[in-house]
Amino acid sequence: MAALVASDIPRGAFVNLGIGLPTLVADHLAADSGVVLHTENGMLNMGPAAHGEQIDPDLTNAGKAPVTELPGASYFHHADSFAMMRGGHLDICVLGGFQVSAAGDLANWHTGEPDAIPAVGGAMDLAIGARSVFVMMTLFAKSGEPKLVPRCTYPLTGLACVDRVYTDHAVFDLGARGVVVRETFGMGIDELAGRLEVPLSGFTGAEPGRDEA
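The chain above was modelled as a monomer; its predicted structure follows.
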């Protein structure tokens, strides 16, 4: 999934990678992609994961894992970082998700369970501040329940904010045409339709998204 997301990020884009699966995208960006990674903890031009002697405890991603810095990297206060997020300066953010609705609503910070630890972080700011929102998640929970749903039942992070969903079984675009299947992995559209409660349509080559809504 991470390699697929990385290949879909346009050259030179400014991108934020959320906690969890999205942090893996940094390791799959081509060295000449020109993509600039932003973190809400105050770093611009973050590189891939750090290993061994590369590790600097002061350089971490959103998940607090050690990362490298690329030439020209800069550092700033959290307030400045969030101003970038809220000011529409990010082209794409890649977030994890507990649920995504057919309308593009996102729930990714709390499952609603009494013992669950809330972890909203900067997700709400990213979901409404970035020009495009990609979500990376498994399509089904451990219980087998779909995470792509007609309506989110978990507390919401943002409304109608998700443009594309990357999962282990398929990639979906969300927009005016509903849920459009871009590609599948080991599971056809008919099988997906039988396991999901949202209507699906096949990809036609156009680029659906929030701008069409």
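The CA atoms of residues 42 and 80 lie 8 Å apart.
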